[in-house]
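Recall from the previous lesson that a structure prediction takes nothing but the amino acid sequence as input. Here we apply that procedure to Mitochondrial transcription termination factor 2 from Mugilogobius chulae. The sequence below is the only information supplied.
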Amino acid sequence: MLRVTTASLCTYCQRIKFPLTPVAPFSKVISSNNRPENQYTIEALCNLSVDIGKVRKLKSWVLSETSTYVSETADMLRDLGAELPSIASILQNHPEAILCSPQDINAQRNLWRSVCASNRELISIIEKFPATFFMMAFHENQRANIAYLQSLGLCKQIIGKVMTSAPQSFNQPLQRNKEVIHTLRETYLELGGDDCNLQVWLQKLLSYNPYILLWPAAAWRDGLCFLTDQGFTKDEIISLVSCLRGSIAELKPETMHQALTFFEQVLDCSKEELKQIAICCPAILLLSLPTLVERFYGIMDIGLSTQQIKECPAVLQLTTQMVQHRMQKLASSGYDIYSGSLDIILGSKEDFDMICDMLQQRQLKTVENTITPLRSVEE
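The prediction returns the following C-alpha cells.
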C-alpha cells in the first residue's frame, strides 16, 4: 500500500516525511468533516472485519487521513497474539491507532512489554485501554514513570498490576506521582514505619489498590489527618489502611464525619466504641451516608437489634437483600439468627453455603436420632 504524508492532523504520533508520491485514490464517500475518505484505509479495515459504520460514527475524521498504518498496526497486535476479533475491536474502539507510525508503536510495545508478564497480558491491557496505549503524546511520561517506580525497587509484577489496572497513572507528569509516593512515605514513617520496610509497604498498597497514584497527595493527607483527629492510634490507622486497601485517599473527611456521627447516634455508643466499630467494619468509612442509612434501617426492619449490630458491625458490609436472603436460608437450616450471632451471615457465598450445608446435615442427624428410638419401641 502506497502512503503519502502531507499535512497530518494526527496528534498521537510524530509523522515521518517521505518524498511525495502519487496520492492513493479516495472513495466518493464524504466524511462528516467534509473531506473524502481514503479508500485504501477503508478496504484495509474491512479486510480486518472492522465495523466501518462504527468508525464513521465514532471518529470519522480518521478515515480521511492520507497517511495510515492499518496493516502495520494489525501485524503488531497479531505478533502479540491477538486474534482477528480482538484486532477488529481495538481498531473500532480507538481508530486513531492506525495513525501511529510503526516506529512509535514498536517503541510503545517495548516499553509496556518491559513491565508486563507476557504478551497475552499486554494484549489484555490494550483491549481494555486502547487509547492509553496508542496515546503517543504520553510516551515520555510513561517511560519516566516506569523508570521511577523501578528505581524504588518495586517488583515487575506490582508495576505490571498498576499498568494492567490503571495505566492512566503512567500518563501523569512524573512530578505528580513523585508527590504521591512522597506523601505515602511520610505517612508510613509518621505511623511508626522505617525506610527499610518502605518498599514492602508500598508494594502492598499498590497491590491492594493499584489506583492509588491517580489520587492527589492531598487526598491522602486529608483522610489520615481526619482519622488522627478522631483519636485513632497509629496502629489503628495502619489497620484501617490495610483493611480499606488504600482507599482512604478516596474518602472525604466530611463524608466520614457524617457516617461516624450517624452511627454514634443510632447505636448510642461512646467515642471509643465507635472507633472499635469502625475498625471491625471499615466499610462505614467507605460507603456513602445514604447507603449506610438504608442498610441500617433495612436490617432493623428485618427484626435484628442494635445490640446485634454493635456486636457484629461487619453485617453492614452486606446489602439488606443479601442479609434477608441469608437469614431465610439459615432459618430453613434450623438456625435462629435472632438469638444467635450475626457472624454466621458474613463471608463469601461459598463459605456461607458450606455453613448452611453443615447445619442441614446436623438437622437431619437430629431428626434421625429422634426417629430411631421410636422405631425400636414399635418393633
